[in-house]
Amino acid sequence: MQSLKEPWPHALWIVRHGQSAGNVARDAAEAAGHALIDVEHRDIDVPLSPLGVEQSRALGRWFGALAPEQRPQVVLCSPYVRARDTARLVLEEARLRPGAEVRLRVDERLREKEFGILDRLTKLGIRQKYPELNEQRSHVGKFYFRPPGGESWCDVILRLRSLTEMMTREHGGERVLVVAHQVIVNCMRYLLENLDESQILGIDRLGDVPNCSVTSYALDAQARCLHLDLVNFVAPLLEAGAPVTAAKDIPAAPKP
Q1: Which of 65, 75, 124, 224 has the most crowded CB, counting CB atoms within 10 A?
Q2: Is the pTM of this model over 0.90?
Q3: Cα(171)–Cα(74) distance, rounded to whole angstroms?
Q4: pLDDT in tens, 181-215
């Protein structure tokens, strides 16, 4: 009798990209009390900061130190430059060659949450320019609130449902690395851990997902499901002496 295919990846790592130039610009704008974040690039093109490059390389060395049978076989990556560069640097440092030792797939379902007309505004900017939306968001909560032209967390989760279905169909039993964004990390946790709105927002309120941190899952072969292994794991950065950062991405809005 032929054995059943594994229903989930054997191992799954979900990584937020390294610190970006947008993270740095956002911190500067918030500290200076500005309404608008000064970034020359459109969000998809925002590059890593020099520190983000250092963080990505440190994480790559950690993956490279794993035994060959424990390293990623598949990389699923957001199309945004900061995520693609993080994945590229991780693979370079781990000495994993795309197409030969690992399959690299850029997937638009892993893109950053779209913030619509709130894009590039600081908390102050949102309150000043769109006070009615700020009030609505505070009332509805970030899980369901959709800014004009943007997405709610539910919208992100909807596109991630098809991504997880693809993972089970095409990458069951394999070791998969996902490189994306803070909201993606949290929304993937919502799906994989079968959480509800209050649980995932409670996790979100604990703090931002650190850049280049690892949240991972391992397959429970008997239960045929994934179980949580690591959460916001930053030891690879600390061991390499790379500062840990946890700034939001550019189009941020205040927590409810």
Answers
A1: 75
A2: yes
A3: 8
A4: 999 999 999 999 999 999 999 999 999 999 999 99
